[in-house]
Amino acid sequence: MNNRQDARLERVLATLALVIISLISLANVVVRYFTDASFAFTEELSVFLLVILTFAGASVAMRSNRHIRIGFLERLFPRLRVPLIVLQWLASVAVLGLVVWFAGQFALEEYQWESESPGLGLPNWWYVVWLPLLALLMIVRLSQMTLDRLRGRLTDEP
């Protein structure tokens, strides 16, 4: 199985976010060095892109079985491997489901209130809507990885 192709969207999002963060940070440093002023929008945009980078990177790690998880119990009780894998999936889906729910509610409220970001004056929901979407994508990647582990197509150790 070629995991590099499985999370292609997240890999592209993470790469783009990292490149843009690097470019705007470099531009901000250069401008500040020569003019003693800085771009006001860079922090706002960088924080947004860091959230994208974090969730997209976590999704890639999840799909390729490189995310932090506890394998101690699986090794200690090999006969309970399958129920433990299912329990890990259920616990992770519950946490990510809460992120999807509350971040979705937050994005909807930001849209309804028509609140704007302080630096650029853009609608806040543009930033926030990525949280539930990427958390939902993480649930998909988690489910793919869990099925591969249960079917023996993915080793238990990364």
TrEMBL record:
Any Pfam family the entry gives: DctQ
Membrane disposition: Multi-pass membrane protein
InterPro entries for this protein: DctQ, TRAP_DctQ
GO annotations of cellular component type: plasma membrane
Tripartite ATP-independent periplasmic transporters DctQ component domain span: 22-151
Compartmental location: Cell inner membrane
Protein origin, superkingdom: Bacteria
Signal peptide (from-to): none
UniProt keyword Lipoprotein present: no
Keyword annotations of the record: Cell inner membrane, Cell membrane, Membrane, Transmembrane, Transmembrane helix, Transport
Parts of the chain that traverse the membrane: 12-33, 45-62, 82-104, 124-143
Gene Ontology biological-process annotations: C4-dicarboxylate transport
Gene Ontology molecular functions: transmembrane transporter activity
Family per record: Belongs to the TRAP transporter small permease family.
Oligomer and partners: The complex comprises the extracytoplasmic solute receptor protein and the two transmembrane proteins.
The protein's role, per its UniProt record: Part of the tripartite ATP-independent periplasmic (TRAP) transport system.
Protein name: TRAP transporter small permease protein
Organism from which the protein derives: Stutzerimonas nitrititolerans
